[in-house]
Automatic annotation (TrEMBL):
Source superkingdom: Eukaryota
Gene Ontology molecular function: any one: protein phosphatase regulator activity
Pfam family, one: SAPS
Positions of region (Disordered): 599-759
Transmembrane region(s): none
InterPro entries: ARM-type_fold (IPR016024), SAPS (IPR007587)
UniProt-recorded name of the protein: Serine/threonine-protein phosphatase 6 regulatory subunit 3 isoform X2
Family recorded in the similarity comment: Belongs to the SAPS family.
Compositional bias per record (Basic and acidic residues), positions renumbered to this chain: 615-628, 654-665
Compositional bias ranges of the Low complexity kind: 723-732
Gene from which the chain derives: LOC101494402
Compositionally biased region (Polar residues): 600-611, 713-722
Organism listed in the record: Cicer arietinum
Lineage: Eukaryota, Viridiplantae, Streptophyta, Embryophyta, Tracheophyta
Length: 759
């Protein structure tokens, strides 16, 4: 059998090509399954592709641009397939390439200045080189060490992102690369690669070159070997970096990216974590970052020149906005300077703090906070600066920000004049004429800083004395800030739910469940479908479900309006023991549990979760009351002539008792059927068949019925409705009684009338 199945299998298209006497590499590259066959290590295919001529042709597809009149598959498909063959990491193919110097020279000819460097082929070149660097590190690094001009060529093309990635891997500025191959990459530390990279700030005006240069140097600060890390953090390298950044003729992108490198030197994790990391540290008390003191000292030498760039009085450029105009705009370079100051303060260097005080840097930055009330990026960094000053171990920086900068007074003035002034020439930000002045956008940051001041004042006498000595602050705190904190306290928001929900003692999992916002319409539809298709019905009621499926869509056991009422009850319920979606109400209780639930709810100390649930308990208790009252009506209950008692010899003197089974008339009008499938109480049941129970059989069924000796469910309105309810206890009693005598409740119609009579 296996031989026959194997005979039916078709040969691979690649094998079909390999079976030919004369086939070309292009025919294989044009076959779609060649990559799968390479990954499956097809021996015939691997042996063919490992040949030097084939590897050379694959490299030419990658490094040589196709002629203009070439076919599309030569321009796009063949270079892609060639790159994928190398990245399949087949050892024989990579070995053929890396051990042949001519092939390696052909590969790196892509870096020649007179060569075209399109981004598509640069990406393929990068993938092949990185694959060799990872899988054939030793022989590959030996080739690069013997041809060190490759490093310089990579630096020249650093503006191409794919080439930049090769340079980062080659330098060892990778999280895993350098750890595994320390000896093979040791020689790079002795080169002047860092100087070549940083000089790209002065030799090129392209913003992409500046951005990739900064990204490469930032990667070196994070993962480079110790030798390169020591060089890049030295004062001489910092001075060389700032000499390019502060040159007047250079674009502002040089300054912005140079400061990014300085920030990465001070806090290497900041770049990798992004803004969330800096914000998270801002909210942590006393958090600082560690930096080389020599690196900080080298940066402080250029601090004065940086602060001169924060002066906006001489700028003339104008930027119209929706709220008015900016003259001048803050700009990316000024924003980057403020960010650099914020990171510099987190280092905790006392020399840096004193230098910032001497130059008046903190006061100038606070003024920018109020001059640009809608720049939230600026507000975030200034808030970080103020927090660092207030949490500093040095008392001089705290007194400087409280007294010399008068920060508290400026907060109060901003709160008093909380709208943007129109037509002012003093401020860079002004409102548009003819429009109502908008509210300033820094109130949230001011609120958070003020709350931090109060918190720190509880443990710092200097801050506390300063706040208490300012009467305007005291009045503003009592009348404005306290009320604002009460309104913005999200833990006290009811969000449309009863406030009693917040007074419960619940665990975290229950809090997450109870406070979830349910889609009422979706849950209502799910409940309707569940009850329509009988998910919650017993096996004895399957015929009722089958008959209900034949009705119209509007004639279902549980319509949408009823479902919405149930979900609303669940959401607004106050049941302490609610652990699932249906336990807030007794409507869905199983038949055998209905009595127990009713007794527990009626005798328990907790109130019912909703008025509907209370009605269910009341209805359950009335079942017994109705049953006991119907005992007296058993003799006068309506019966059909066919239901007359008959004497039947059973071998005993015990009297025979009868249970009359009634069938109701079917209705063809869907409107007469209630939403939950109950029959209108006004209908009169028609007689059907009778089932006899002996006295012994009745004693077996008696515990299921009631504590009384006899139970009579007559044709009254209430008992008729109860017998039709899916959750009514009466249906379980009848099912149990029928089971004793071999009856089948599945042969009944939707609505049943049941009467047990005693002789």
């Amino acid at each position: 059998m296996f031989w026959r199945m194997a005979g039916l299998s078709t040969a691979s298209p690649v094998e079909t090509i390999l079976d030919r006497e004369n086939f070309t590499l292009e025919e294989l590259l044009d076959e779609d399954e060649i990559i799968q066959e390479c990954k499956a290590l097809n021996s015939r295919l691997i042996n063919f592709l490992s040949g030097k001529s084939q590897v050379e042709q694959l490299i030419r597809y990658i490094v040589e641009e196709a002629p203009e009149d070439a076919e599309k598959k030569r321009t796009f498909k063949f270079p892609f397939i060639a790159c994928e063959i190398f990245t399949c990491e087949v050892d024989n193919i990579l070995k053929t390439l890396v051990e042949d110097e001519e092939l390696m020279n052909l590969l790196f000819s892509f870096l020649e200045p007179n060569h075209s460097h399109c981004n598509l082929l640069a990406g393929y070149f990068s993938k092949v080189v990185v694959c060799l660097l990872l899988r054939k590190t030793g022989p590959f690094m030996q080739y690069v060490q013997a041809h060190q001009e490759i490093v310089k060529k990579l630096v020249e093309l650093i503006g191409i992102t794919s080439i930049m990635e090769v340079l980062i891997r080659l330098i060892g500025a990778d999280e895993h690369m350098y750890v595994n191959h320390v000896d093979a990459m040791q020689w790079i530390e002795d080169t002047d690669v860092l100087e070549m990279i940083v000089d790209k700030f002065s030799s090129s005006d392209c913003p992409e070159v500046h951005a990739n240069t900064a990204e490469t140097l930032c990667a070196i600060t994070r993962f480079a070997p110790a030798g390169l890390s020591a060089k890049i953090s030295s004062p001489s390298f910092i001075g060389r970096l700032f000499s390019h950044a502060l040159e007047d003729s250079r674009p502002k992108s040089v300054l912005v990216n140079s400061l990014s490198i300085c920030i990465s030197l001070l806090d290497p994790k900041r770049i990798s974590f992004g803004a969330y990391h800096s914000f998270n540290r801002q909210m942590t008390n006393g958090s600082t970052v560690s930096a080389n003191p020599e690196t900080v000292e080298g940066m402080l030498e250029s601090l004065g020149d940086l602060l001169k760039l924060l002066d906006v009085s001489s700028a003339e450029n104008l930027l119209p906005t929706t709220y008015g105009k900016l003259q001048p705009p803050l700009g990316k370079h000024r924003l980057k300077i403020v960010e650099f100051m914020s990171v510099l303060l987190t280092v905790g260097s006392e020399a840096a703090e004193n230098r910032l005080i001497d130059f008046g840097a903190v006061q100038r930055i606070i003024n920018l906070f109020f001059e640009y009330p809608y720049n939230n990026f600026l507000h975030h960094h200034v808030e970080n600066i103020i927090m660092s000053c207030l949490e500093s171990k040095s008392s001089s920086i705290r007194e400087h920000i409280l007294r010399d900068c008068d920060f508290v007074g400026k907060v109060i003035q901003a709160e008093k004049h909380f709208t943007l002034e129109a037509g002012t020439n003093k401020q860079p930000t002004s409102a548009a004429e003819g429009k109502s002045p908008p509210r300033i956008g820094s109130i949230g940051h001011l609120t958070r800083i003020s709350n931090k001041l109060i918190q720190l004042g509880n443990n710092n006498s200097v801050i506390q004395e300063h706040l208490q000595g300012n009467s305007e602050w005291t009045d503003w705190y009592m009348n404005v800030l306290s009320n604002r904190n009460a309104v913005e306290n999200v833990s006290q928001w009811a969000c449309g739910r009863p406030t009693a929900l917040h007074d419960r003692n619940r665990d975290s999992d229950e809090d997450d469940y109870q406070d979830r916002d349910y889609d009422v319409a979706a849950l209502a539809n799910n409940l309707s479908q569940a009850f329509r298709y009988g998910i919650y019905n017993n096996d004895d009621d399957m015929e009722e479900v089958d008959r209900s499926l034949e009705r119209d869509d509007e004639d279902v056991y549980f319509d949408d309006e009823s479902a919405e009422v149930v979900i609303s009850s669940l959401r607004l319920g106050d049941d302490h023991e609610s652990g699932s979606l249906f336990t807030n109400s007794n409507w869905f209780a199983f038949e055998e549990d209905r009595d127990r639930v009713a007794n527990e709810r009626s005798t328990g100390s907790l109130a019912s979760p909703s008025p509907n649930a209370e009605e269910d308990i009341k209805s359950a208790s009335e079942d017994y009351k109705t049953a006991s009252e119907d005992e007296d009506l058993a003799d006068t209950a309506t019966s059909s002539p066919e239901a007359e008692p008959k004497s039947e010899p059973v071998g005993t003197d015990k009297a025979v008792e009868w249970v009359e089974w009634r069938e109701s008339l079917d209705t063809s009008d869907p409107s007469e059927v209630l939403p939950n499938g109950e029959l209108d109480a006004a209908e009169s049941p028609s007689p059907s068949s009778s089932v006899a129970l002996t006295k012994d059989e009745q004693m077996d069924a008696a515990p299921l019925a009631s504590p009384d000796e006899n139970l009579s469910v007559g044709p009254s309105d209430q008992t008729q409705t109860e017998s039709n309810s899916p959750s009514s206890p009466a249906s379980s009693y009848v099912d149990a009684a029928l089971a004793e005598v071999g009856g089948d409740s599945n042969t009944t119609d939707d609505n049943k009338g049941i009467e047990q009579m005693s002789s």
